[in-house]
Each structure stands twice: as C-alpha cells, then as structure tokens.
Amino acid sequence: MIDLDRDVRRLVLENVRQALNLNWRDLARELRDLGDVGLSTFLRETGLDVEDHYRRSRQGWASLRHTAGLDATAPGDEGLGRAFGRMSHIDDVERLAFLTEVLAGRAPRSPRELRLMAMLDVMLWGGAEPISGMETRLARLTGARAAELGELANVLRSGLRYVAPPLDPVVPLHVHARYSKNEVLAAFGIDKSEDHYSPTTLYHDRAISENLFQWESQSTLRSSAATARRYVTGESTVHLLVRQSKRDEGLGAPPCTYAGPMRYVSHEGERPVRFVWRLDHPLPPEVFHYAKATAG
Fold first, then answer.
1. What is the bridge-based pairing of β-strands 212-216 and 238-242?
2. Which of 70, 157, 279, 294 is the most buried (most CB within 10 A)?
3. What is the 3-class SS of 10-33, one letter each residue?
C-alpha cells in the first residue's frame, strides 16, 4: 500500500481535476508544450486515459497534432477520428495484432481473418456499405490517420489486463472481451439489416450466479413455438452479451462483454417465456456485479 503525503495527494487531485476539465484548445496547448510526442506519452503526461482523450478531442489525435502545430497538413476525414474513439474499447490481443498487420499492408488469408476485417470495416465506416468493398475502403486510410490508428492499437495493447481466449476457429470473438453490436454481427457473418437482426429491449434479463443467467424472450413467444423448441432442444446455439449501460457517454453506444455460449436449463411462463441458461464460462466478478441487477 502506498501512503502519499498530504502535499503529494493534493497535487495528484489537482492534476486529475485539471485533466477532467481539459477542452480541445487546452489539449492542443498541452500537446504543443510537450512537443512532438506520441499518443501514449501524451496520455501519460496529461493523466487522461485513451477513452477520455477521444471524448474530449472527437476529431482525433491526428487533428489534435495539426491544431497544436506539429503537423502542417490537416489529416482530413474527421469521421475517422470519431470512429477511432469508438474503437477504444478493443481489448483482445488478436484483433490488435491483426489491425497492426493490416496497417502494414497484409491482406486477410483465411475466413477468420476476413471476419476480423469485416469487424474493422464496421467500426471505421459504420457497416452501411457492401462487405465486398472492404479492401477498397481500407485503402482510404492513409497518412496521419493510418499512423493515428497504429498508435491507438499500441496504446490499447499496452493496457491489456489479461488475454481473453478465443472459442471458435472461424468466429473471432474472445470470451469476456468487449465488442459493439455491429462487431459481433460481423464476427458471426450476419447481415445487420432488419431482415436478419431485430433488436429488442428486455427488462428482466439478469445473472442468477456466475454460471446461471435468466433471459426473457420477446413478448409474443409461446413455449410451444418452433423458436422456443429449438432453444429447449439445443438446436439453436445461444450466445450471451452483457452491457452495463445503454447510455452514450460520448463514444457511441457502450460495448458489450461477450460471455460466450449458454446451454438450456429450464423455462417457465408464456408470452414471454423466461429461460434459465448455464454459461460455459463463468462471468468475471466485475461483470457479474452489474449483470445480477440488469443486463441492458
């Protein structure tokens, strides 16, 4: 345990307060004073984490460098700066390594890598365009913006607390890593149009224990329906994603934690049907803590 003396504690708290109040002009001035440093050094010196930085400088690191006078040429495409902020949740080493390789010019070589590319594509461009144009769109990522993404990947890799294991040879999801909804759909090879995916708001989903999860179906489902029977017999594989909050805190919808596949245990009720599932992988304590109340 570290016991800071009173003066040091006051200095630390003051630095934190200043960091929380930094706006775009303040950030540019801080960077100009620090000089031509990288993103990781800037974050360390200002006391910001990477998500805080992108909340405050939504145009991105490359634009901040230009505003600070460190890069003469404006990087353009401010949408990419915002997209990078939405990618700041990435916490599995496979995706970060793949991202670095793609930026170095490596093309996907397997069905798994094509899905990793699709996950990158939906984060950069929103997933509104055909998947066949992924490589063409990626070619637009050049210069300062490509350098920014490379720096972001390095910062995220250095902050990894654990290596989440992969579960499937083709689906590039790692248990207990975080993903946006569109990344998950791309990982499973699912079209995000309404014909293939229909989001619902659920109010009675919660973790019963680290291993058991209660999930309530859509309000129209009967236990005799074909969909319910597939759940009961195991014909349909069910995967759980848990999100602590739906509130947008400046970087888009918060990501979900991928909890992996679940197995049917029991069900009760009609319209809706309330199912209990057993997780193949127990929820980590911090996820269980919020999932036992509600799973957003």
1. unpaired
2. 279
3. HHHHHHHHHHHCCCHHHHHHHHHH
Radius of gyration of the chain (CA): 22
- What is the mean pLDDT for each group of 10 consecutive residues in the chain (296 residues)? 46 50 84 95 92 84 94 85 93 95 92 95 87 88 94 95 86 94 92 50 76 89 89 90 77 87 93 93 92 68
Between CA 62 and CA 144 the distance in angstroms is 6
pTM, two decimal places: 0.83
Q: How many CB atoms lie within 10 A of CB 71?
A: 17
Q: Which amino acid is at 249?
A: E
- How far apart, in whole angstroms, are the C-alpha atoms of residue 83 and residue 178? 16
Angle at 160 between CA 156 and CA 164, to 5 degrees: 120
Q: For tokens 């329906």, what's the residue?
A: 225
Cβ-based neighbour number of residue 60 at 10 Å: 26
